[in-house]
Write a structure and sequence with these properties.
Elements (H helix, E strand, L loop, with lengths): L2 H6 L3 H25 L6 H35 L4 H25 L1 H7 L11 H47 L10 H15 L4 H16 L7 E2 H16 L6 E6 L8 E2 L4 H14 L5 E10 L2 E9 L11 H15 L4 E7 L3 E9 L6
Parallel strand pairs: 2-4
Antiparallel strand pairs: 1-3, 4-5, 5-7, 6-7
């Protein structure tokens, strides 16, 4: 079993396995210390009733922890709504204390009676009981949040490190012709050219570049962005490529009308398309074309890019294979075991096939 996939993948077989493992360890950990607290009874006698007590209270614990990591963190913490999250966290803690006290009052006595052990009543002080339970549940909640945030930080750290390494590699090998998709630089170069030849087109292209710049500055820092927005920005980029086009290039674009609210990691779609345009621009082909088709089906994003090439060209030109490898590494990081990036080279056509299961992204 791949350790990275086991820890980070949202593939059901990995996800369920690691959650079962975590909660099994947590139940055994709690059981061990609860059993030891029955000092008047042998460990072998106190272990099984203690285990049943932990198992029956498990649904309350898991409800609280999952409420934090799957609702509070993505809905409030990730959006900067810190006070709202703190308020809801505290309110949920009070509800948990009430539910757990009800459980210890009505369920615990039945379990301990079966095993011939006396039921321990609540502390005389309700305040003491309250803060004891409050501390216990928030220790669990903080541990769950720490694991969730730690995974998110680690993935983002690796992703940024990968981008930095690729950028450094490009800088060190730029004389060999290896390039990195830098659509903003290319777009600004086009502005410079058009300003001399067709200045009336400048306002339109500047407006389109502004949207791309905002994307790079802000959205690229988010773990996931709306797929609908990514595709809108793709349209803007295609329009930039069409503006002031000197060569006779046939551009065919087909995008889905609905994205069903799906999200995708940023900086995957645009670089792939930009790289394809760059490859096409440096190839000597009589009739140039580029076909881009994307679709969404059952949470799966599918994109096919094809562009013309000379018959005698057998490999991707100008370091594109290095770029494809970099994108593939990033996909391995963000969508382990839930993506496929394939390059197909035919006599007169290059093709890139991308498949991503958006439901199984690392959160």
């Amino acid at each position: 079993m791949n350790l990275n996939a086991f820890v980070f993948s949202n593939n059901p077989k990995f996800r369920i396995t690691r959650h079962v493992l975590f909660w099994s360890i947590w139940i055994l950990y709690d059981t061990f210390f609860v059993a030891l607290s029955w000092s008047k009874y042998p460990f072998s006698k106190s272990f099984f009733p203690s285990l049943l007590v932990e198992i029956f209270s498990f649904p309350i614990d898991i409800l609280f922890c999952y409420l934090i990591i799957y609702f509070f963190i993505p809905r409030f913490l990730s959006r900067g709504k810190y006070l709202t999250m703190i308020f809801l966290w505290l309110a949920s803690s009070f509800v948990y204390v009430f539910l757990f006290r009800m459980y210890t009052t009505h369920i615990n006595p039945l379990i301990y009676t079966v095993y011939g052990m006396p039921y321990r009543m609540h502390s005389v002080s309700f305040i003491w009981d309250f803060f004891d339970l409050f501390g216990q549940i928030n220790m669990e909640g903080c541990m769950a949040a720490a694991i969730k945030l730690g995974k998110m930080w680690y993935i983002k750290h690796l992703e940024l490190d990968l981008i930095k390494k690729e950028r450094k590699k490009v800088e060190l090998t730029s004389e060999e012709g290896i390039t990195k998709p830098v659509f903003l630089i290319n777009a600004l170069t086009k502005v410079e050219t058009l300003s001399k030849e067709t200045p009336e087109l400048i306002p339109e292209i500047i407006e389109q570049i502004k949207k791309l710049m905002l994307y790079v500055m802000y959205d690229n820092n988010q773990p996931k962005v709306a797929l609908e927005k990514e595709l809108e920005l793709l349209k803007e980029y295609i329009q930039i490529e069409r503006t002031g086009l000197k060569e006779n290039i046939q551009i065919n674009l087909k995008l889905p009308e609905q994205t069903n609210g799906n999200k995708i990691a940023p900086f995957i779609i645009l670089p792939l398309v930009e790289n394809s345009f760059h490859q096409l621009s440096v190839l000597d082909v009589a009739d140039k074309f580029i076909d881009i088709e994307a679709s969404v089906s059952s949470g799966n994003f599918i994109m096919d890019i094809a562009w013309s090439k000379p018959v005698d060209t057998s490999t991707l030109a100008n370091g594109s294979s290095s770029f494809i490898n970099a994108i593939n590494k990033r996909l391995d990081l963000l969508y382990p075991h839930s993506h496929k990036l394939k390059v197909v080279i035919r006599p007169d056509v290059f093709m890139i096939n991308l498949r991503i299961d958006l439901n199984e992204a690392i959160n």
